[in-house]
Amino acid sequence: MSLAQTFSIAETINFFNLIVFAVMSIVVIAAICFVDQAAREITISYARRIRGNRMYGGSSTHLPLKINQAGVIPIIFAVSLVLLPSMLAQYLQTLSNQSIAGFARFITKVFDPNSLTYNLIYFLLVIGFTYFYTAVTFNPEKIADEVKKNGGFVPGIRPGKPTADYLNRILTRITLAGAVFLGLIAILPSIARLLTGITTMMIGGTGILIVVSVVLETSKTLEAQLIMRSYDGFLKE
Q1: What pLDDT was estimated at residue 2?
Q2: Does pTM top 0.70 for this prediction?
Q3: What is the CA radius of gyration of the chain?
Q4: Most buried in the list 93, 102, 140, 157, measured by CB within 10 Å?
């Protein structure tokens, strides 16, 4: 709905709720920026190697493990799946069989976007798909092998499988935070409606997540292009 409609009912819903709505919008954008950039940096050290009269290695670098490794994909998967029962139920309600039609009405009630069950199922699906997509796109064994082949190691961790297990353990922990965050973003419209009572305009958490992610990625791309051309970047560390 339009912003004008939201302010047109300010007198009936209490102006304080509009302030809460605005604060929530700012907090959500700030949280998305923070989580999108947040990462756990794993120190990778390289042993010194001498070839001829030259010495190689002996330096350290960092492997960033992002909290939100999966991006917006889990929300897209989850919303596609959670809307399917309602679509099927709408068709089943048109059948002459009263038992099937009654069951379809029950499904429609359970998967009503305003219901607690819908939001709970949606939230859990987002968490599940976050872990699934992260496991598909990030392979700790492959990363550990590449580090080992290049002569690198994680301080205090043996190269090879122990390194892979360590990366997997760290990734599992930080993914939980990212998954819960994505789940809250997914059900944000329901949370906003519950806290403010505003129904004419909802905070589209998924839309904000996509827009902020695109803006941040564009900024990184422009920064990289500026650095390549020996200009001073506009993003300061």
Answers
A1: 46
A2: yes
A3: 24
A4: 140
